[in-house]
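Subject: Protein record for review, amino acid sequence with backbone structure tokens
Concerning: The relation between a protein's sequence and the shape of its backbone.
How to read it: Take the token row as a discrete description of the fold.
Enclosed: The protein record, placed directly beneath this head.
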Amino acid sequence: MGIITNGFTSLQQIRLERTGLRDHFDLLIISEEVGVAKPDARIFEYALAQAGHPDRSRVLMVGDTAESDIRGGVNAGLATCWLNAHQRETACRSSPRLDGDLFKRPGAAPV
């Protein structure tokens, strides 16, 4: 499992370490280090290469921002799931293809 994050390396590493999330992921891809940011498909291509080129049908992009995370996953040809914790309407100029929304399935409880 991996993380793709936009931002500055020093700040993102601190955030992930403070939350304790860093230890749960094998791969950390930070846009500053790659030179492109989500939603550009190239950062997803880079992450997939670093992960050993897994079969895309076995990859799910889960993100909390429709404009960068979900649109980026779609741009890279991945299945996507929007972690829409605040149940916001998409701010995308044109709606991305959402393969799932964790908070809009029947019986879903807020996390």
The domain at 2-82 is CATH 3.40.50.1000 (Rossmann fold). The two ends are 20 Å apart (CA to CA). The CA atoms of residues 48 and 80 lie 15 Å apart. The chain has four helices and four strands.
